[in-house]
Amino acid sequence: MSSPTPTVGRMRLTDRLPELSGAEMLATLVPPPQFDGATFDTYRVDADFPSQQDAKDLLIAFSGGGAPTKARGGLFRRAPKRPDVKPGVYLDGGFGVGKTHLLAAIYHAMPARRKYLGSFIEYTALVGATGYKNTVELFRGADLLCIDEFELDDPGDTMVMTRLLGELVASGTKLAATSNTPPNALGEGRFAAQDFLREIHAMAENFDTIRIDGVDFRQRTLDGHALALTADEYDSALSDAAGNGVVSDDVFADLIAHLARVHPSRYIRLIDEINVIGLRDVTELTDQSAALRFVAFIDRAYDAQIPLRATGLSLDHVFSEEMRAGGYRKKYLRAISRLIALTHS
């Protein structure tokens, strides 16, 4: 079987070596495009899970939108407590209950001059790229920090973030956070407030925990498969893509190696002005570090809603079975659901 002919005259991600200053990295800490219009009004409450309405009411109050609305559900339903006695809120719930939507709604609703929203990895990448002291100075005076998917599986990063948040809270910054499941945590699809608070023990007293129950809508996505194209279908798909923002990396392993040379904080610039990402001859990843970098890359592509077109192994099988059964299982499952969505977009 002959190797596919490289795509002539088309950009490759491996040709890009983006640079970002601290100020530029700071400017990227805004809600992803799919949450540009996220508001409390557009958060669709599931009537079967009253905690969703409770959370919405509490977060409206936290964001400066007035007192929570009256409790629903009868005379014996206890009204939720106002969270504004503490500078931080932690949204505790499983996958797919709208935590990121609510986080973005807080960002949009709070009348703040300086506010930021990013994933945990974006904040820690900023610390890694600019240094701890410089990061503190960049955020000093911020009114609000929203941290999505606070990582609990790296003690070093957790300690750095706890220290950073402690300094910022002391200077008046408000916080809103969600977190992922720690390695090998019990309870599939669930997050646990006690795990989050234990890991950030030095900061725990600054957070009010808001529980959000519900059905995991992402699980439905996992029932499908990522779309793998033939060589001809791939060429046709990329040729049909409008504009010049199309990249085609003809050697999947080269892209994986390139991600190790680009700091994760710069992945967002790696895909800047890209409309379609093409990957030829996808193969299984067996190195954990490489796989986690690919997860971070896919997170950025998903945030930007960039379609993926690929040949070779279906992208929902790109992570080895051992990885998908290990301590980072939740990260890989989230990435798989996003890969499936992007290959069908």
UniProtKB/TrEMBL annotation:
GO biological process, any: cell division
Organism: Microbacterium halimionae
Domain of life: Bacteria
Coiled-coil residue windows: none
GO molecular function (one): ATP binding
Name of the protein described by the UniProt record: Cell division protein ZapE
Signal peptide coordinates: none
Gene Ontology CC entries for this record: cytoplasm
